[in-house]
Here is the input.
Amino acid sequence: MMEKDNLTPMFDKPQGFFDTEVPKEGHEFRFLEKLNTDTKTASTKKYKRNWLKPISIAASIAFICIAGISFFNNAASVEEQVAEISPEASKTELYFTSLIEEQIQLMQGENTPETKQIIEDTMLQLKKLEANYKKMEQDLLNGGNSKLILSAMITNFQTRIDLLQDVLNQIETIKKYKHENII
Here is the structure.
């Protein structure tokens, strides 16, 4: 009973405040027209926005593919460009590279606790000489004095071979010294 008493005064107060007038003639038609117009523009905007995202994704993928292809083509072209400038240089490089690899394998086959440090130092020096060689290749491609650069490239290979020969001789000396001390 208490609840009825509380609800009744709430509905008694707003009487006379409600809008009881009848809308103007054609109100329902104008309302439906506005509703249809808003729906059409919303669907048009949504349709335009739906195409923007796939197009931008496709453009991004195309850009990444083109950049990747050009990157990989340039990596292989350094040796090809050097071969174009001097075919003898590429043949010489192939010969010296195989000779150096062979000596590196011999050196690493002699890896013992006594020779470990000298082998590590030699590998570090070989990496520095290889980096210098790569820089000379770039200088050659950039149009430097080709005869001078080619001569320096050959000297670089000879330096690496001499270094490896010296280290192999030192390793032999270490092995002999160790053998003599054991006997």
Summary: The CA atoms of residues 93 and 134 lie 12 Å apart. The mean pLDDT is 78. The radius of gyration is 42 Å.
